[in-house]
Amino acid sequence: MLERAKRAARAVLEAWRRAASARNMRHGARHVTRAGLTADLARLGIAHGDSLFVHSSLKSLGYVEGGAAAVIRALQDAVGPHGTLLLPTYYLPGGTVRATCDMKDYVFDPRRHGTHMGRLPEAFLASAGVRRSIHPTHSVSAWGRHADALTEAHHRAPSIFGVDSPWQRFIGCEQAKVLGLGISMGPVTFYHALEDAMGDTFPMAVWEEKTELLACLDYAGRRWDVPVRPFDPAIAQRRIDQPGRGDLRDYFAREFDATGLRVNGQVGDAASWCIAAQAFYDHLGRLASEHVTIYASAAELAARPIGRA
Ligand SMILES: CC(C)(COP(=O)(O)OP(=O)(O)OC[C@H]1O[C@@H](n2cnc3c(N)ncnc32)[C@H](O)[C@@H]1OP(=O)(O)O)[C@@H](O)C(=O)NCCC(=O)NCCS
Asked: 134 with 108: CB under 8 angstroms?
């Protein structure tokens, strides 16, 4: 009873905080519209029929009239009726994979649990025609042509990002692209697809030894125990998305620019980028063979000139 009251109070406070924050944006930021965003996406090279994996920061776009839902409509307009959108709707109640594995009695329920990945994924979950994969830490959601194929049976994949995961299937889609809306090269899940696929041949051991089994419910309420191997916490500290690793974010941005693989442009007010998924994956593999990974030390980065042919 007390717990329910606390939850309700927290929800009211959060709604109030969000309203105040949106008001500030409305008064302080440039206003952008769905149509304006669609035009910007087209200038970035997003075309009808594309499949996009989208990482985003809503507030970096400027004040979007219609909020996150309007951004989703703009993305749908940009890829058209034969396109596909795939968004990270991960739910990590512990904050990290390790901490989530340590939560006793945690059972992921795709119908009940939201996402910790920001306002756009949150709005996407609530949009019509979106399918969500069943996974205790890295559930993804998709809309469009490949939505069923991408989200299906994630809970039966032997690992989070490997064979039969949405990432490996996504790489195989025609016109598949990773899109960063107002984000750096840091919070990009795609890197882990290569690590998972390379396994022991990846230059370093990024996972813990033991694979855990975490419980999920499917849409029929059946329970599944899903294999999850947490990241090694010590190695994760050195990763490209850590606040202190601006050197890695800068290296990867300049490397993908120098090779011509990254297309940069403005979407609304946000500095944004797009990289074809297969080329992204292949180039990460090449970098790994030259000891440049998203965990590389400053010395390892210095030893490999950016854009080496
Ligand atoms: C963490 C992260 C989500 C923060 O970005 P953000 O823009 O601050 O947060 P959101 O995208 O959730 O947008 C919320 C903000 O949009 C703003 N906002 C509200 N209404 C808005 C509107 N109509 N138009 C524009 N912005 C608006 C608010 O300032 C809000 O901030 P609040 O939380 O204080 O209310 C982002 O930096 C990031 O890392 N994104 C990638 C996440 C991801 O995919 N991770 C997986 C990789 S492993």
From this structure: yes
Q: Ligand 1 centre and the CA of 24: distance in Å?
A: 14
pLDDT per residue, tens digit, the chain (309 aa), is 788 899 899 999 999 999 999 999 999 999 999 999 999 999 999 999 999 999 999 999 999 999 999 999 999 999 999 999 999 999 999 999 999 999 999 999 999 999 999 999 999 999 999 999 999 999 999 999 999 999 999 999 999 999 999 999 999 999 999 999 999 999 999 999 999 999 999 999 999 999 999 999 999 999 999 999 999 999 999 999 999 999 999 999 999 999 999 999 999 999 999 999 999 999 999 999 999 999 999 999 999 999 887
Helices 67-79/34-43 angle, 10° precision: 40
Residues 6 and 105 reside in one and the same domain: no
Domain that holds residue 4: 1-30
If you measure from the C-alpha of residue 101 to the centroid of ligand 1, how many angstroms do you get, rounded to a whole number? 26
Question: Taking the C-alpha atoms of 16, 61, 173 and 190 in order, what is their torsion angle to the nearest 10 degrees?
Answer: -80
Residue 119 Cα to ligand 1 middle (Å): 5
For residue 309, tell me if it sits in a domain.
Answer: no
- Do 169 and 298 reside in the same domain of the chain? yes
Do 15 and 158 belong to one domain?
no
Residues 39 and 25 placed together within one structural domain of the fold: no
> Ligand 1: does its nearest atom lie under 6 Å from the Cβ of 21?
yes
